Amino acid sequence: MKLKELGAFVLAIMACVNASGQFRKYSNEFLNIGAGARGLAMGGAQVASVKDGTAGYWNPAGLVGVKEVPSLHLMHAEYFAGIGKYDYASLAIPLRDEKRVVGLSLLRFAVDDIPNTLFLVEPDGSVNYNNIKTFSSADYAFLLSYAQSVIDNDDEKLSFGGNVKIIHRKVGSFATAWGFGIDAGARYQKNNWSLGATVRDLTTTFNAWSFSFNEREKEVLYLTNNDIPVKSTELTAPRLILGAARLFPFSEKFSLTAEANLDLTFDGQRNTVISNKAINVDPRIGLEASYNETVFFRAGISNFQKALADADTLNQNKVWVYQPSVGAGFKINNVMIDYAFTNLANQSNPLYTHIFSLRVDLTKNKK
């Protein structure tokens, strides 16, 4: 009966997903990077198994796994030799009845020290490098999460959750955007099986852009045949993620968790396993081996795409490539340290990066 409730939730999500309208493909893409080294090491396959503070990002319904004391998460990553910096922080606070949890999350992706060459060339045609200034391009997202447990037994659990998110994007002094969106999620667990569903940008997230150029900047843009942008609205289409996970308890101390996710997008044709204008399906697979709930080893595969077999020949045959990831973690008392080694591109063009994240359960003081 509870499985029917989860199915009804998924059907309601599908009813809200409408592919009509002018959606911007890859809009707010920084929100799809991930959160926490555990999830990144498992290839982003998290929607069914996540039960810690990062659930505010992956599936807000999983926040009910935070019990008794607040949980703090911190993560920092640098991409492309430190050019891009990605930071994530979250705080999950269980309420007194232990059936409801509220969460706060902050994400930031930024590229700093970008050269502004708008005035590199003087009116007389000479090049003046002293005119080069730098600026930053930064994207921020603030998530306010709420999760509630409907069923919480030893062998059966059902929870629902949601996010209200505020987005702020800034490109130097030239462009600023504010956005608003809603996410929703559900999670069901029966014995060793877990099912999860989450939808991002449920009601279509929007970014309202405004641009600011002084007269000198407008003149240069006009003389170089560049369009001067005006106020605009960027729409982000809903994204549905479905997942199933299974726990394999091999002994009292050793266990294995396997999870598979299907990432469904509706903003136009993408390079995915199932690809068309109406719907795209991108699978994710993750594994986590646990010893005594203290030491963890993880691996994942995601981002399946078709690419040219050999770019240096005239042979245009395409092969499937994917994004691998591995990681580990260990827990000491109330502190959890996780590590991920993930590929940002694919097999043929590796751009690996090291990611660390920290989880601290804020234990109560004991007299």
| Structural class category | mainly beta
> How many discrete domains?
1
Corresponding CATH architecture: Beta Barrel
Average pLDDT across residues?
A: 84
What is the CATH class?
Mainly Beta
Name the CATH superfamily classification: monomeric porin ompg
Task: Choose one word for the global shape.
Answer: globular
Helix content bin: under 10%
Instruction: Flag low-confidence runs.
Output: 17-21
Radius of gyration: 23 Å
β-strand number = 17
Strand order of the largest sheet: 1-2-3-4-5-6-7-10-11-13-14-15-16-17
By CATH, the topology is Porin
Sequence of secondary-structure elements: HHHEEEEEEEEHEEEEEEEEE
Could you give the distance between the termini? 46 Å
Main pleated sheet:
14 strands, antiparallel, barrel
Strand content: over 45%
Number of helices: 4
Protein name: PorV/PorQ family protein
Organism: Segetibacter aerophilus
Structure in words:
- With 367 residues, the protein is mainly β.
- The chain has a single domain (2-110, 138-213, 226-361), classed as monomeric porin ompg (Porin), CATH 2.40.160.
- It has four helices and 17 strands.
- A hairpin with a 3-residue loop joins strand 13 and strand 14.
- This is PorV/PorQ family protein.
